[in-house]
Amino acid sequence: MLNVYFREWQSGRLQRLAYLGYYILLMVIAIVIILGTIFAVGATAKLMGGDVVATQAMLMEHFGIIAIIGVVGLMIAIILGQLNIMAKRIRDMGLPALWTIIGMIAFSIILNILFPAQSVEVSTTIVKTAETTATTTTQTTQNPIVQIFDIVVFLCLVLIPSDTFRKERS
Question: Residues of the chain with pLDDT > 70: what percent?
């Protein structure tokens, strides 16, 4: 499985169903890692007496740089795995993988500049035993145009058959 994600950078090919399976597997692995981290911090907070903020401060103090390096390393591994299976799928369709990915990234950057992310403020009230505490949370959402571009790229990778753009050699 790791060979599919991290080997054959220059020559590998991946058909539609295989691409979809490896894409879903990569996303499930990423979600499991994120949820596992959240549950681990929550369980540690419960063991430490229930104060989540103090537990997060203690974990950051003891494991801060190691945790940051680990998270960055996992993010880089997931991004490289995603780029590799995307390149293999693009190569299987008959397009040059490197230039197609560079073009998609450039177009995505242009879309993000032209249509920046939107910030939405959400106010929530938390009621504790005798006092009320109001907190404000800012949530950033991606612009719908950028989301549509991402969906179109994914659907093209999944739905376009193998060798569609490959030139026949006589």
Answer: 87
Q: Note whether 78 and 26 are within 8 A (CB).
A: yes
In this model, does residue 154 exceed pLDDT 90?
Answer: yes
CA distances from 120 to 22, 79, 111, 112, 149 (A): 34, 27, 20, 17, 22
CB 92 within 8 A of CB 13: yes
Rounding to the nearest 10 degrees, give the CA dihedral for residues 64, 70, 76, 82: -130
Is 144 within 8 Å of 116 (Cβ atoms)? no
Burial class (CB in 10 A: 0-12, 13-18, 19+), 22: buried
| pLDDT for 26 | 93
Q: What is the CA radius of gyration of the chain?
A: 22
pLDDT tens readout for residues 39-67: 887 787 777 777 777 777 887 888 888 88
Kind and range of the H or E run holding 170: none
**Alpha carbon 23 to chain centroid distance?**
11
